[in-house]
Amino acid sequence: MIKKLLSACGAPRLWVVALLAGIFWGAEFWQRDLWEPDEARYAYVSREMREDGHWLVPHRSGEYYAHKPPLIFWLNNAFATLNGGQINRVTTRLPTLIGTILSLWATGQIAALLFGGASGWLAPLLLAVSTLFWVVNGMGQIDGLLCGLEMLAFWLLLSTPSPRGSGHLRIAAAYLSMGLAVLAKGPVGLLIPLGAWIAFSFFADQRHRLRNWHLLWGPLLALLPVALWLGTIVYFKAAPEGYLDELLFKQNVGRAAGTFATGHAKPFWYFITYFIADFLPWTLLLPAALLALKVDTTRRIEIRGVLAWMLFVILFFSLSATKRNLYILMAYPAAAILLAAGWGRITSLPDRFRKVSQWLLAGLFLLLGLGLVLTAPIIRIVGIELPFETAWLVPGGIVLTLTAVLLMRPALKAGNSCRWLATAATGFAMTLWLIALLVYPVLNPIKAPYELAEAAQRHLHEGKPLLLYRINGEIQALYCNVRGRVVKTPEELSEAIRQQDNGMVVLHNKQWEEIADIPAIAAGSRGEYRMGSKTMIWVAFDLGKSPDL
């Protein structure tokens, strides 16, 4: 009955996806404060953009910020107008929510178009509760928005059979979506969706689509928003020296070659291992689903096309020297579609394939659920101590354990496979929702510099910048609600102290010996606080109270 209902509906409507996404990630949006690195950085840069009026060139602590194009900062400020101009945990995450909705909606539409049945509903549900997608789309950063714009463009290209008549408008909309993606994170916003569509068309026996004229004029249209932005910068001479060089070359060619952001340099096979981990828990079901698809001769070309899309994204970023697991986010909608479509055809395989996969997933849920419930006695036995109250893990553990027991019931296991998979995804979604609702607020004092903010209220006078010694320190300046000023050497710090007479400096504890001999620092008030795994030091100085310094 459920499968027939879902099959009749095809794929969820956009407003349904928006409602479900708002409910699923809403608890996290409200409960979790802004954490580093990305969320706090983008919120701080957005705030500085509004305060200083640097609408064309983003700035950080008074210096240009060329690591990312400006779309995310524009959107953060646009949503802040709904909150009186205040950039907070919710307004910073609304651009990500838009991207999330677009990703899930496009995934459902593509799954329904290619495979029909219940795939249009199952695929976005599985994607939402896959590990990496859940984590990334709960944060106020760029990759969730980027993936949504890329998926929208890919869907528009894929669902347009011919660029004639009204098809031209859909094609133009696809390339404009890519243009916004480029404004969000650079050339990958064009190369990834266009390359994935070309790979899909080639391997899905739709090569005739590759002879369309839009492959010539489309990329030019996609680059139009970027050209307008850069042209405005040049016309008004708004670019500081070095900004365009870093933005256009170092941040793109340099990253690909590994000469920039060397901390992200990884081996070629990096994404293979991360894909297995980041698609959990559904990685355990994917092999059986792919085998079921392999024996379905009626959908062979569609399967090849989706596999080509997924592998293109992974291989493209594997060729780059710098890698982060969230770079291949657009590969996961393809994996979710393949799993949803394949699991609906699992009965075409010998029964042992279904049973083994089901027992593996149910066993994983049971192990994780019991682990969450029994965290307190386990850590006592092991002899470690967690920095938060483990009782908040118990509700999620109970839900996951009950889900595992339900998945082991013979009636459900032997019944409708799509219903079994939907039950697993729903139970896992409830677990993740409870973790966000209950556990994340407990982690806020650990992940955010609340102690520093309290010290700044006592020691940092109005209008004085927070001195950041050898750190970018966006999260510190953000929570202290002041401007940051980066100083990189003891000499620069001494000069900054002389210039402002009183104030505060923040640094890692491992850098303390470098500045401990500066008289104002030695005579100042000092405190320590932890932020995640790091121990930080703040020092309040006042030359007026120490005339001999």
Provide key terms for this protein:
single chain, 549 residues, alpha/beta, D-Maltodextrin-Binding Protein, domain 2, 3 domains, 5-stranded mixed β-sheet, two-stranded antiparallel ribbon, 63% helix, 6% strand, globular
Task: Describe the model.
By secondary structure, the chain is α/β, with parallel strands linked by helices. It has helices at residues 2-9, 14-31, 38-52, 71-80, 94-115, 119-128, 131-136, 142-158, 167-185, 188-203, 214-222, 224-235, 243-257, 270-278, 286-294, 300-318, 331-343, 351-373, 375-382, 394-407, 410-414, 417-447, 450-459, 474-480, 490-500, 512-515, 519-523, and strands at residues 59-60, 63-64, 466-469, 484-487, 502-508, 525-531, 534-542. The chain folds into 3 domains: 2-243 and 269-343, no CATH class; 350-447, no CATH class; 450-545, 3-Layer(aba) Sandwich (D-Maltodextrin-Binding Protein, domain 2), CATH 3.40.190. Helices cover 63% and strands 6% of the residues. The longest helix is centred in the C-terminal third of the chain and has 31 residues, at 417-447. The radius of gyration is 26 Å and the shape is globular.
Which SSEs are present, and which pair or pack?
Layout: H1 2-9, H2 14-31, H3 38-52, E1 59-60, E2 63-64, H4 71-80, H5 94-115, H6 119-128, H7 131-136, H8 142-158, H9 167-185, H10 188-203, H11 214-222, H12 224-235, H13 243-257, H14 270-278, H15 286-294, H16 300-318, H17 331-343, H18 351-373, H19 375-382, H20 394-407, H21 410-414, H22 417-447, H23 450-459, E3 466-469, H24 474-480, E4 484-487, H25 490-500, E5 502-508, H26 512-515, H27 519-523, E6 525-531, E7 534-542
Parallel strand pairs: 3-4, 3-5
Antiparallel strand pairs: 1-2, 5-7, 6-7
